[in-house]
DNA sequence: GTGAAAGCGCTAACAC
DNA sequence: GTGTTAGCGCTTTCAC
């Protein structure tokens, strides 16, 4: 049998209400009484039961985190930001992988709600009607991290992916690369697919020689898909002199795909990645990439969530963090 | 107000015990009654409260996971194995980063126990007396993953780090490399420091020309420390013709440190890493490395934990998974 | 400043 | 098969 608040009360010769006050730091306790209680707690090795507390107080100090894949270097970094801030505000995290699978996501949201989490941090691909519906029915606040809600009606933390992609490609064009190719994520993916692609396309149209769909290869975010895409793009009659990759991992694949076929980076082909994961510095030449502040997105979104959970006023429901282009050696500008 | 089991009972015209039976899949319910209850649940949008259930049943179907750093590519992969198996057995995971800080670790264990987790999966550095003490006092099972307990009295899942290091270095020596250098983790770290170092040392003594401490650089697991260590080792009069790195990330640093100074891998210097993270294939030349089955270690340790939580019989408390050397292009054997 | 007592929403005997 | 009832360990009024 574990020792309960009642055991402590008896040992200290007070009521359980008083023990509860001491445990919760309520100031309305005489110092002498407090000491008696503290001694009893110490002596009995009492440890409060958070489940009972959760039932009585309707607060669990736990938040649910739904993430596509914790083994992805990108999301792992985000998760670290989330967890650090959660810890800072005394919350714990229930972490689940969704693989961006809609059924799983919906199921997980329900599981977290059953577990009475005080809030949910959601990372995923598309926010469908079903998602929106489920979130709206949720009794606790939900914040999106690195995830777009097209209707912009949910709190979220992102960078401007479209603009970031545009900026990167524009820089490539201005530096003299006539045809810029792209290795995109699946176009259904709002962030890694659509947004980045549309930024790329806009830059080609407005600053470059126009958009040519042959210059776009669609990969699956993996290193290998970058490897293949690069070689495929270089076989084009009008082979690109620069390639914009949707993620750093893909960009590394691109660089190596190029090098394996004897092309030089950046002399023959410039390469730009996206995210600025640690990978960007672990390749030769080092990778020029769009900086997406992953840790910060995690941290800011968790902070935002704590505000909602505390019912504080929130000025910016939709926060857009700044991005920038980190210039390294895979480009010649 | 959320709808409770009592509301469902009234709506369906049965007792709450019956509703509980239906919700928990107890077969002792007449199909007609079951249907009435299910309809009521559906109609009211009832969602069971896991906290109340946890309090009443003394089971939370939640396990605590203490991990040094989720943003590390190694631990992230482990975590994924853990979470997948947890999901399979209907457990959720509370994930916390410890940074291998002893105070944090001890504190986290307590927090998880307060939250009434059904078990704990621990990853860390050293298991001190205090750790052992705390674990022993724990009312729930604890399993170590990729973490050594020198007294071998706790359930754990690992590979044989000493032997794996020995094997890698022996192969290097047999392939003709006279002096093999090493970039180790801090020697206080039982796994990445001591075990791997001692395997290296033994191979030098038994198969090579003996051990020379000048050939060992101590880094901090980072890419940059590999970069520096490589350049430092190559300045030795007796520069190594092969370098064994304690982790893949360090090995990438070593390769690039070498290349940046004009050395060729593997012609001038062979390089072997450890872990077989995805990084090993994202470098040129691709990295020969010791395969540590990270996902499997996570998965197996979680499976082991479920057995303890179910009070099943466990034959192997200390499991040692096989390792092997994955031969790629950073070596010439 | 402290205590008594009523829940929180559910499970688990036990009775019928 | 189904209902009754007593907790699980705590928070939270409300008295005193």
TrEMBL record, chains A, B:
Residues 3-57 form the HTH lacI-type domain. GO terms for molecular function: DNA-binding transcription factor activity; transcription cis-regulatory region binding. PROSITE patterns: HTH_LACI_1, HTH_LACI_2. Gene3D superfamilies: 3.40.50.2300, lambda repressor-like DNA-binding domains (1.10.260.40). InterPro entries: CcpA, HTH_LacI, LacI/GalR-like_sensor, Lambda_DNA-bd_dom_sf, Peripla_BP_I. Pfam families: LacI, Peripla_BP_3. Keywords: Activator, DNA-binding, Repressor, Transcription, Transcription regulation. Global transcriptional regulator of carbon catabolite repression (CCR) and carbon catabolite activation (CCA), which ensures optimal energy usage under diverse conditions. NCBIfam families: ccpA (TIGR01481). PANTHER family: ARABINOSE METABOLISM TRANSCRIPTIONAL REPRESSOR (PTHR30146:SF150), LACI-RELATED TRANSCRIPTIONAL REPRESSOR (PTHR30146). This is Catabolite control protein A. It comes from Salibacterium halotolerans.
């Amino acid at each position: 049998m574990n020792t309960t608040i009642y055991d402590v009360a008896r040992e200290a010769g007070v009521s359980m209400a008083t023990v509860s006050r001491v445990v919760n730091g309520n100031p309305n306790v005489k110092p002498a009484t407090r000491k008696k209680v503290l001694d009893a707690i110490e002596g009995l090795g009492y440890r409060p039961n958070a489940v009972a507390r959760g039932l009585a107080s309707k607060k669990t100090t736990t938040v649910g985190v739904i993430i596509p894949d914790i083994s992805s270097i990108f999301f792992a970094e985000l998760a670290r930001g989330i967890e650090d801030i959660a810890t800072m505000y005394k919350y714990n995290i229930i972490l689940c992988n969704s693989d961006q699978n809609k059924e799983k996501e919906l199921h997980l949201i329900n599981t977290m709600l059953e577990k009475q989490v005080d809030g949910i941090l959601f990372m995923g691909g598309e926010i469908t009607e079903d998602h929106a519906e489920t979130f709206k029915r949720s009794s606790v606040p939900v914040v999106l991290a690195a995830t777009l809600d097209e209707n912009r009606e949910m709190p979220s933390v992102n960078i401007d992916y479209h603009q970031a992609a545009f900026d990167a490609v524009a820089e490539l064009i201005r530096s003299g690369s006539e045809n810029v190719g792209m290795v995109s994520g699946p176009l259904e993916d709002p962030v890694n697919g659509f947004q980045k692609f549309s930024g790329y396309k806009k830059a080609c149209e407005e600053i470059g020689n126009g958009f040519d769909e042959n210059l776009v290869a669609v990969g699956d975010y993996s290193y290998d898909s970058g490897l293949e895409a690069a070689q495929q793009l270089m076989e084009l009659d009008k082979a690109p002199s620069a390639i914009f990759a949707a993620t750093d991992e893909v960009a590394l694949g691109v660089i190596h795909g190029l090098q394996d076929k004897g092309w030089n980076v950046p002399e023959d082909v410039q390469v730009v990645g996206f995210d600025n994961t640690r990978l960007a510095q672990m390749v030769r030449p080092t990778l020029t990439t769009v900086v997406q502040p992953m840790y910060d997105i995690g941290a800011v979104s968790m902070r935002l969530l704590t505000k909602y959970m505390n019912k504080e006023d929130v000025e910016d429901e939709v926060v857009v963090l700044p991005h920038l282009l980190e210039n390294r050696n895979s480009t010649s500008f």
